[in-house]
Known about the structure:
The complex is a heterodimer. Chain A is an all-alpha fold. Chain A contains 13 helices and no strands. Helices cover 79% and strands 0% of the residues of chain A. Chain B is 31% helix and 22% strand. Chains A and B meet through helix 2, helix 3, helix 5, helix 6 and helix 7 of A and helix 1, helix 6 and helix 12 of B.
Amino acid sequence: xxxxxxxxxxxxxxxxxxxxxxxxxxxxxxxxxxxxxxxxxxxxxxxxxxxxxxxxxxxxxxxxxxxxxxxxxxxxxxxxxxxxxxxxxxxxxxxxxxxxxxxxxxxxxxxxxxxxxxxxxxxxxxxxxxxxxxxxxxxxxxxxxxxxxxxxxxxxxxxxxxxxxxxxxxxxxxxxxxxxxxxxxxxxxxxxxxxxxxxxxxxxxxxxxxxxxxxxxxxxxxxxxxxxxxxxxxxxxxxxxxxxxxxxxxxxxxxxxxxxxxxxxxxxxxxxxxxxxxxxxxxxxxxxxxxxxxxxxxxxxxxxxxxxxxxxx
Amino acid sequence: xxxxxxxxxxxxxxxxxxxxxxxxxxxxxxxxxxxxxxxxxxxxxxxxxxxxxxxxxxxxxxxxxxxxxxxxxxxxxxxxxxxxxxxxxxxxxxxxxxxxxxxxxxxxxxxxxxxxxxxxxxxxxxxxxxxxxxxxxxxxxxxxxxxxxxxxxxxxxxxxxxxxxxxxxxxxxxxxxxxxxxxxxxxxxxxxxxxxxxxxxxxxxxxxxxxxxxxxxxxxxxxxxxxxxxxxxxxxxxxxxxxxxxxxxxxxxxxxxxxxxxxxxxxxxxxxxxxxxxxxxxxxxxxxxxxxxxxxxxxxxxxxxxxxxxxxxxxxxxxxxxxxxxxxxxxxxxxxxxxxxxxxxxxxxxxxxxxxxxxxxxxxxxxxxxxxxxxxxxxxxxxxxxxxxxxxxxxxxxxxxxxxxxxxxxxxxxxxxxxxxxxxxxxxxxxxxxxxxxxxxxxxxxxxxxxxxxxxxxxxxxxxxxxxxxxxxxxxxxxxxxxxxxxxxxxxxxxxxxxxxxxxxxxxxxx
Lengths: 313, 511
């Protein structure tokens, strides 16, 4: 298990270095002179020159890369070129927002998708199975932003149960926080719930046909214990979907954050790419990759724990 | 089949409501009639760039900065500077010194008094600022004449400095905060509000009213909340849901306004059209545009008023000039000069020796795609074939000046001399080679504008210059687009040409 863990960690670090370096050079190639985007319509040759000197883009690209790597190794993400505030602090203030809605969406997907998938898988062809199948088709067909808009029109604008826009930190009000993340999380989760349910249903149906299940039944084990055994064998596919979901929801949150005007990573990424704020883009990229690595690492550990054969593979 | 997800929605909704036992957040938009104090929740389009005025943008930072800082002078909405911390001012006969008298009753939120020394320190800080320096290019020094008087000494005449200061480049900061270098995180001004610790960065900025502010009666908003919302639908939802009462609106919001009893304020903010960067025909690709007849042909070929209706839903002014419609310099009589006539355009091209057209490459980025098909079609009718180079928006500004012409949506100024400087005379990112040498008339008239006595003589010179640049098709302006502000019935907003979102001083209660 130790060598398995070390290998997974090492591959994560390599992925981080490759993606971060690639992003650095691609961003600088795509935006050779960021001063215009940063200064906007009031840019003059004088202000452009002053800004280029301040942010260091008047130096060779390799020197800039060297400085960036040296700073990153010390945990320094640098300063935003737009507002000259530390990138780490700004991402640190936005990350909880995105993580709030993504984590809530994944939890909703796990719980509801798990219950629905198990129920459908235990009774293939039943009404609940048909509902899950139909919901999968419908929710896959509906774009996420449309679902978000319907939710906000119904529950925020018409009924006014939830705020239409904005975010309340849990430190300020736990209830306000729940209210502010509820609709965005649901909008993100709806598609994920049926995806998890579908995967789990398939796994349960397959596992239910295995000999060991028949043996367990013949021994007269309680139904709930048989379901536990079934789930242990049927869950790897659903767990993989959930982990992938977490990663994809991180990027999918951009649209939902915009619709609900949430100050998450999505808004930062969009603003940084529009302004040419390369340090902020790099910071977001590094943080996102770190999350992807962590989630995949935890998934590997979990799958290895559930199924020891996975460690060998 | 939708029962399942709706069950989940209902369950979560119930749980959240049980935990909070209250309705959605947001402030009651209704006012307190007795005290005349009303809550104001503004939906701005962008987050504050920086709380440090030397790093702030003029564009959408107006409401944020004007809440916590007082300016020396403020734009009255029509390009004219009005008193704020500076009670009055005088420009010397040689136009090289501006002497300002200052208020003596303003206090910074850290307790320090505002005086001439503080004003000079702030101005010097702004002059050194990366973004704020644009207003002070021709300043030699700032001088504290006495406790409540300052003098601004210029290296050369500058008719636009007061205009730029009024747009948001003269916010006064506490001297100790400047020394500490902490303004970007903790703004310390003498403004009518202070930034509340309850603010949520990037989502909701809350402000505490300063009861003893010297103009407290002019700011009857309490509580004051400003939220950055870059999505038009989110803003409209916020207004409908009662969370916001003044937003940077769009046509969808304006269309709903009448039925909802909302107020709509709009004013021209940008000109939309083709910008020529090579009016001398110095480059091979730009050679055709060095011929005035080619530029005139393009002006004649595009139907600006139709594009205004079709693309901007009529929200703007059908004018072919870069001086804002309805302001000094813009001449209604010129608007018909290039009435759409595709045959005439073809004749002009033929006269210029391009009867079969020519090929040109232009840059393209997502915000300009609504115009792409029209440009391709109209130029195609003239035999001009376009090859598009695709860019991301962040890169467009850097790349566009490298092409002989590009689709432009450019901010305008409320001050006509500033328009002459920025649009015609001085190199800018969108006008890298103004090309005055291509026309002796333009050069002569630009000089005349800068030398004329302010007032009628200068206005006449500006109008003559506008006639000339229109004759010479210096630009191909299709129309001028509006900025739109939608508010609940309690408020009115005065748009300010030169800024994208006006300051708190331009938001008023309905009498």
